[in-house]
Amino acid sequence: MYTHMGKEISFLAFHPDSEPDEAYITEDMRDKAYNICREFLSGTWKSISSRDMVFKSVSGGLSNLLYYCSLPETHTPLYGEPSQVLMRMYGQIPSEGSDTTVTESVICTLLSERNLGPKLYGVFPGGRLEEYIPARALTLQQLKDPEISLLISKKLARVHVLQAPLVKEPTWLFNNMNRWLKYARTIKVDTVPIKPNHGCQAAHS
Q1: Environment class of 183 (CB within 10 Å of its CB; exposed 0-12, middle 13-18, buried 19+)
Q2: End-to-end distance of the chain based on CA atoms, in angstroms?
Q3: Which CATH code fits 22-136?
Q4: Distance from chain centroid for Cα 109
């Protein structure tokens, strides 16, 4: 659930809550983003150069790299193509064609078509192009608001009743818990001796 200018956005959004930032931008990534936007969005995007495109990183992704791509102010859309998009590059992505990749692509497509998520403009190896939503995430205090929780639950209910061509067995949670547990067991933490707090001992003596 996201809000924009005090108004509730009518679908489930997946972007982070921060403003685009020009830091951490490489020319290779800019060129890659430009070629992807040019191929999938066409229209005015084909008449600008890589340097013309507004390109900024967006913080807030958990494992994905997020980038804001926009037409310059001097250019406007010709055929209804978006003037700005979010490019999502998968972070810890399994091999292409894996169950995780296919499932996520199907879910995002369904949510986009049902107006329950950002519009999907393109799916490519290692990522996707989606609608950019200039919104902010709810704060922890807002998430504890019963009225907001009710709105979120109603929207999630619309997602849960969708007929999706996906495996119906509830294996995702337990598979991930087992994977995280195996990973946690490989982490070695140095034991740090705890020095006694003499001030506390004196206070209690």
Answers
A1: exposed
A2: 54
A3: 3.30.200.20
A4: 14
Assigned token pair, 43:
């229209």
Other CB atoms within 10 Å distance of the CB of residue 114: 12
Locate the domains of the chain by residue range.
Answer: 22-136
The identity of residue 8, as a single letter, is: E
Sign for the pseudo-dihedral over CA of 128, 134, 137, 138: negative
Closest CA to 68 of 53, 81, 82, 58: 58
Q: Which helix (H) or strand (E) holds 180?
A: helix 172-185
pLDDT, tens digit (0-9, with 9 covering 90-100), for 77-96: 999 999 999 999 987 655 55
d(CA 88, CA 74): 25
Helices (H), 20-165: 27-41, 99-113, 140-143, 146-160
Helices (H) and strands (E) in the chain, counts: 6, 8
Q: pTM of the predicted model, to two decimals?
A: 0.70
